[in-house]
Design brief:
The structure is a single chain. The chain is α+β, with helices and mostly antiparallel strands. It is built from eleven helices and twelve strands. A five-stranded antiparallel β-sheet has the order 7-6-5-4-8. Strands 10-11-9-12 form a four-stranded antiparallel β-sheet, with helices on one face. Strands 1-3-2 form a three-stranded antiparallel β-sheet. Helix 4 runs parallel beside helix 6 and helix 10 crosses helix 11.
């Protein structure tokens, strides 16, 4: 690797993680610690604020600042940023900000990448869906607290909470915070659009071992959420086929009974969402639901056909 290429790779590594030891950087780049020290000095001469860190091994950190030179992105990273900006959702006012950021990104890209990013922009159609959105300022506070392992305080459903934030997860166009709640001695999931006035407390914590991958944990917590309408369908189709048909197939939602049959747990606060999932099953099923849910489904079906709501179907009917 040439010196300019190595320095760009070094800068890319330092932009991707907060702290590095000299030995880690040397191993990644296949050079000596002395070469790393020389390259770091060259970056400083070019205006990049690289700070030295203390500790047993010592290391380096790319500091933030108003005069920080432009961020370096490789080809795949630039396209990934463009896709993220084009499909941004679930954050209040993010659409306009994303469009401006994407326009700025396109202006500074080389021609070969500008064409790729433009193709991504033109090919992606974003469907606008109504629903709760999160405050970008709240997301920023929570994301920084996750990164810095700092306790945050906020009001959630009228209660003051102090938690150890670990990860932000997006699902169903909503944002969720996975955090450890010392008061309850357990992990909790919070919808960010229901989090009011989050603030960092300045108190650091030692990260606890996560119970699972954050996305998988949040998915399971959503599956067990107390929805207004819930039911279970025994479907005459293999589990993998049904999973491929559902728009959102959360872990544990579809369970195989045997090679040709599966059980699907459905739930939502709006009966129309349950009805839509039943239509997506695309196979005969037996429904286990309360009379209230069955009556609501029948009313939804009658509404689609212009008929009048009829009596609820008997439990277990097809």
């Amino acid at each position: 690797m040439t010196m300019p290429g190595r320095m760009l790779r070094l800068l890319s590594l330092m932009q991707g993680r907060r702290d590095w030891t000299g030995a880690e950087l040397a191993e990644r780049l296949g050079v000596t610690d002395r070469t790393i020290r020389r390259d770091v000095e060259r970056l400083r001469e070019l205006g990049y604020p690289v700070d030295g860190t203390t500790g047993t091994a010592g290391g380096y950190r790319l500091a933030s600042g108003r005069n920080l030179p432009p961020l370096l992105l490789d080809d795949d990273e630039a396209v990934a940023v463009a896709v993220g900006l084009r499909t941004a959702a679930g954050v209040q006012g993010i659409e306009e900000s994303s469009t401006r950021a994407l326009a700025k990104l396109e202006q500074v890209l080389p021609a070969r990448l500008r064409h790729r990013v433009a193709a991504v922009r033109d090919a992606i159609a974003v469907m606008s869906l109504a629903g709760p959105v999160s405050d970008p300022a709240a997301l920023g506070v929570l994301a920084a607290a996750c990164r810095d392992h700092e306790v945050v305080a906020f009001t959630h459903r009228g209660r003051e909470r102090r938690v150890e934030p670990r990860s932000l997860v997006t699902a169903h166009r909503r944002w969720y915070l996975l955090a450890y709640d010392p008061e309850r001695a357990d992990w909790r999931t919070f919808r960010v659009d229901r989090v009011d006035a989050p603030r960092a407390t300045g108190r650091r914590f030692t990260p606890r071992d996560l119970p699972d991958d954050p996305a998988a944990y949040v998915a399971r917590s959503l599956t067990g959420a107390p929805y207004r309408y819930t039911c279970t369908a025994l479907v005459d189709a293999p589990a993998e086929v049904v999973r491929s048909r559902l728009v959102v197939a959360l872990p544990g939602r579809v369970e195989p009974v045997d090679e040709r049959t599966c059980r699907v747990r459905l739930g939502a606060d709006a009966i129309g969402h349950v009805a839509a999932d039943l239509l997506l099953l695309g196979a005969p099923y037996t429904l286990d639901a309360s009379p209230e849910v069955l009556a609501a489904l029948r009313a939804a079906a009658d509404g689609l056909t212009g008929g009048r709501p009829g009596p609820p179907a008997a439990p277990g009917s097809r």
